[in-house]
# Entry
Amino acid sequence: MSDMNPFKIAQAQLDEAAAKLGLDPATHELLRWPMREYRFTLPVKMDSGETKIFHGYRVQYNAARGPTKGGLRWHPDETIDTVRALAAWMTWKTAVVDIPLGGGKGGVTCNPKELSEAEKERLARAYIRAVGRELGVHRDVPAPDVYTTPQIMAWMMDEYETIMGHSHPGVITGKPIPLGGSQGRGDATARGGLYVVREALKLRNLDPKKTTYAIQGFGNAGQFAATLHPEILGGGTMLAASDSRGGVFSAGGIDPHALVKHKLETGSVVGYPGTKPITNEALLELEVDVLYPSALEGVITKNNAERIKAKISCELANGPTTPDADKILHQRGIFVLPDFMANAGGVTVSYFEQVQNTYNYYWSLPDVHAQLDRRMTEAFKAVHDMHKANNVHMRLAAYMVAVSRVAEACKLRGWV
Ligand code: NAD
# Structure
């Protein structure tokens, strides 16, 4: 299945949930496809004086529960099918955390590493000139994703406001704070993951202060998970962490803040004093209470699922576990906190940003944290109740919660 086109995977995941829920055929067919999609060419003047034509996309997958929401990816491999799949997953993600938004996604096929800052700005503005009329706080709200940044969001917001002729900060989220960004966006993904880990530990009767943990992928999400684990749980010992260059392990524990500093200074976790090297593969198989896959998709497969010894796997990365592995982990009693629930903290704080922009009144950091905690805890409870009631693994339970919510909204609107 991992070789399949990502949109076919997204459809297959929906099909499984639809069958389990006994969804009627019309609703099922409606949810298998994007409601609307745009493809456009973007002529951009390069610094050399030549004009280059880029291909851009925006998919509005389903708006039954509210305006569509989802990031913009700038990537050489971007295709309409990856954007469709990601837009479908955003639909389920916003539904599982019960925020009043639908799912969307966009992208540009390009290699941002080859673009100057000025070329990036012209590409950002061209994107908004092409599709801006279809965006808006009540229609569709983009955000940063792979290789797009708060600065790119700022240029896009400026272009949109210039076209519309009025202030409209909520058209895009992930903005810099002086332009209407929210407090708490930076660590929101990992923080949301920690709130659901806290709930899972309670159910498993594990003392959070005594937990051990390991992080695969010491990037944005992984570094915040490393430092927030002891902060939110009141304790815990990090035994290992890794990045693309390798990993480090210490049975006595690693200070997460010192490791972040080392990574900033040297570009990698490798070589951190007082630790032994560990491969990425061995890290996944460590005996820890909580494993945080925070790097890539497809790292836990049928080939290593039998050897995973963590009690809880909190998926901050998208798609780290293959469908075959999911079944094995479930049979072995490993508690998986599935990606689109566990990493939904980012989109939830993006939603808070949109709410604050609409009020034109901004929340304090403790207010953002309290609201995020409530949403994540409620999402965990709904998914766990579904998991128990139907004896299905947590990912299927999360799909069932999300799909039933979107299906209900479609029905109430009289679409099906
Ligand atoms: P990032 O680029 O900041 O970090 C990725 C880390 O993974 C880097 O440290 C990199 O060295 C490491 N890595 C790369 N290849 C690896 C390998 N083969 N083995 C081990 N480590 C490897 O990215 P990020 O923003 O932290 O995102 C990580 C994952 O989390 C992605 O799947 C992303 O889609 C998901 N995610 C992130 C957010 C967010 O807000 N940052 C939100 C939702 C989902």
In short: The domain at 188-342 is CATH 3.40.50.720 (Rossmann fold).
